[in-house]
Amino acid sequence: MSAGLQIRGLSKSFGGLAVAREINFDLAPGDRKALIGPNGAGKSTFANLLTGALTPSAGEIRLDGRDIGRLGEAARVKAGIAKTFQITTLFQDLTVRENILLPVLERRGAALRMFRRADADAQANAEVEALMAQFKLNPFAEVRVGDLAYGQQRLVEMTVALALKPRILILDEPAAGVPTGENHLITDAIAALPADLSVLIIEHDMALVFKVARAIVVLVAGAILVEGAPREIAANPRVRDLYLGSRHG
Amino acid sequence: MSLIPRDRRLRDLAILLGMALVLTAAFYAFPDNLAFATRVIIMMIFVLSLDFVLGVAGVSTLGHSALFGAGAYAAGLCAAHGWNEPLLGVVAGAAAAAFVALLSGLFLMRTRGLTLLMLTIAVTEVLGELANKFSDITGGADGLDIVMGPILGVFKFDFRGQVGYVYAACMLLLVFAFLRILIASPFGLAARGIKESPARMRAIGAPVYWRLVAIYTLGGALAGIAGALSAQSTSLVSPAVFDFQLSANALIMLILGGAGRLYGALFGTLVFMSVHEVAASVDPFNWLFIIGALLLAVVYVAPAGLLSLPDLVKRQLRFSR
Fold first, then answer.
1. What chain A residue is nearest to B182 in terms of C-alpha separation?
2. Fewer CB within 10 A of the end CB, N or C, for chain A?
3. What interface predicted TM-score (ipTM) does this complex get?
4. B-chain residues within 8 Å CB-CB of A110?
5. Cβ within 8 Å, pair A117-B185
6. How many domains does chain A have?
7. Which CATH class is domain B14-270?
8. pLDDT above 70 covers what percent of chain B?
9. Are the C-beta atoms of residues A46 and A82 closer than 8 Å to each other?
10. What is the pLDDT of residue B1?
11. A-chain residues within 8 Å CB-CB of B197?
12. Which structural domain range is residue A223 located in?
């Protein structure tokens, strides 16, 4: 049984339209892989197939050898797959602390408690404090997430995903909408992720991809075009023609 | 120094004590209007249950009277068959309404938006029609006349409505305290999360559909308590308990006060029913005009409800400095 994520022959079609075609993909513990591709390449579809938001038409998804391809979204989170969203879908009216407390309580199986204050769980609180400290969010603990700067919201987004203690973390365009000046917040946060966590980054910002990824997978029209180290991908003429263009040459 | 304690538990206790004091003051201040005050309290419980379902968890419904009606008929049928101890009726009402909410919630909670709104109305209409059709059991259009026994075998309902008022006031305090605890709990936090972003809740591993069914069932039980109290205080249950108007009025009361924080439900109900009482006595035909104008003014000036007015004024003052 191999550790990590193994995907074989993963396909998804909407009627006659194939949006994922025979994808074979591996993500070992500690991997930092980036998934790139032009608009409409099927990157988000692939991420949704991994999280269970979409059901595959064919193929299998295995996590540590266990077939998780037919599990629903909630069950996959429990299995260890977490994802951040391209457009933040945080709980805007809740505070930073509450945003992080919710996934901690869900993961600990304490979310159905009705007669104890949510903030009275000492262990959950300690975990929330540690997570906020990791991402330097403590000063904003009691701030409504809707009142935070977008870069900070992105950090909360990553913290919420990490609160689930995943083994596979999918970052769907973690720098989307973040002002260039705040991009370092994201790269620093990715660099500080636990070493044994497998991370898949879906990103358009090539500077960020080349900074944080150790391997890059190029997806075109729902199929993998090429996979390799960042230097190989940057030098690959097909990738340059199809996606990166001559300005990256 | 604030009179409201900082510790949350102490603050909750202080709030409950404050409510008990206001309810006691109303008892002595309006000795001849206790029947009306009891109606207000029962409606407050009903609107609180709607606030939990809609204001806290974001479940759009225009069919909350289905659950009120289920509670009213359960309590009425209990009393009609000799089980006329009121607390027993309340338990039966809560259980019946929770059961109806659970059954209907299993398919209602799979839908959202307009579809959900339409289906909640449809459930109410179906139940109203059933109450009409099964007249052998429900008394049909005439309804059920019931006679209530003494509470716990000791406190008899009196003509002045004093026992009925105290009974309903105690129930209101219990329901309010329960909801305060529930909303502050992990379950309540998750309910707020579902309202904010169901997609995010799914992404953190919460079974959103089953949570919504549980929320709707709990809200149903509370609405059933209001229905049971209504049946017991008026000694009558008729298909009118399933009126669409009841659901719509409850929604207006909630919007008036401000949804999602419980106090809005209390305040909105008090304002709506008081204005209704006064306006209807001045002009029995056009009182809705006054309610409509009030609602328009609130939605325009303070969209988050009357309870948000102090914050709005504070903000205005800060800007004008």
1. A114
2. N
3. 0.84
4. 186
5. yes
6. 1
7. mainly alpha
8. 98
9. no
10. 44
11. 89-92
12. 5-248
